[in-house]
Design a protein that fits this description.
It is a single chain. By secondary structure, the chain is of the alpha/beta class. It has one domain: Rossmann fold, CATH 3.40.50. 48% of the residues lie in helices and 15% in strands. The chain has eight helices and seven strands; from the N terminus they run βαβαβαβαβααβααβ. A seven-stranded parallel sheet has the order 3-2-1-4-5-6-7, sandwiched between helices. Strand 1, helix 1 and strand 2 form a beta-alpha-beta unit. Helix 1 packs across helix 8 and helix 3 packs parallel to helix 4. The longest helix is centred in the middle third of the chain and has 29 residues.
Length: 243
């Protein structure tokens, strides 16, 4: 049985990704930090369906907690086959309202967490000469968005890091790719008005917003052996929005 760690997996895209991997036979480690109730509810849901799932609380912006999670998984499951770096937060503020604390929080949650998890997990993957790493960026990491400068910077950093790491880990038979969602209907985007959402739909060639399943499907594809010759790529799940 293959093992996957999914960060920020208690809600939204992360939770749907956990469901998909678990139902496809992966031993699925659901990482969470603050959303304990949601994480336990997801675990119970999947256990009731006969899936192999586990929980691990860790703040993935803290290196020592990432190391503890990776060590736990290897000790219990003997290997780490897939890492999905999903944990992230949004921030909509004009630059002159962004504080140093705001900057540190967004960069730590959205990018430092990716660095931390890739660093601890790649040690194991290099030893086993196999692995799949899928990092979550955003279309805004490629095209930018007004009043989201720090968020966009954090997601652009994920893209650059993914491409560099793919070159570094490729000789060890490790694929590193990136999924860049467009507008996805999650709690994170719940603050947007209907008018804004309708405008996004009008600008999207597929004429709808995305849902967490759309992104989870792309992540599972990049984790599968069928994508074995794909690395260093950014797969947009945006309905063509950023074209």
């Amino acid at each position: 049985m293959k093992t996957v760690i999914i960060t920020g997996a208690s809600r939204g895209i992360g939770a749907q990704t956990a469901r998909l991997f678990a139902k496809n036979g992966y031993a699925t480690i659901i990482n969470y930090n603050k959303s304990e109730k949601d994480a336990f509810a997801l675990k119970d849901e999947l256990l009731a369906q006969g899936c192999c799932v586990d929980l691990f609380r860790a703040d993935v912006s803290v290196y020592s907690e990432c190391k503890a999670m990776a060590d736990y998984v290897v000790k219990k499951y003997k290997r780490i086959d897939v890492l999905v770096n999903n944990a992230g937060i949004s921030q909509i503020k004009p630059l002159f309202d962004v504080s140093q604390d705001d900057f540190d929080l967004v960069m730590s949650t959205n990018f430092k967490s990716v660095f931390n998890m890739c660093k601890v997990v790649s040690d194991y993957m290099v030893s086993q000469k196999s692995g799949k790493i899928i990092n979550l960026s955003s279309v805004w990491g490629e095209v930018g968005a007004s009043c989201e400068s720090v968020y966009c910077a954090s997601k652009a950093a994920v893209v650059g890091f993914t491409k560099a790491l793919a070159k570094e880990l490729g000789p060890s038979n490790i694929n590193v790719n990136c999924v860049a969602p467009g507008f996805i209907q999650t709690d994170m985007n719940g603050c947007l008005s209907k008018d804004v959402v309708d405008e996004i739909i009008d600008e999207t060639p597929l004429a709808r917003v995305g849902n967490p399943q759309d992104v989870a499907n792309a992540i599972l594809f990049l984790a599968d052996e069928k994508s074995g010759f794909i690395t260093g790529q950014v797969l947009a799940t945006s309905g063509g929005w950023q074209m």
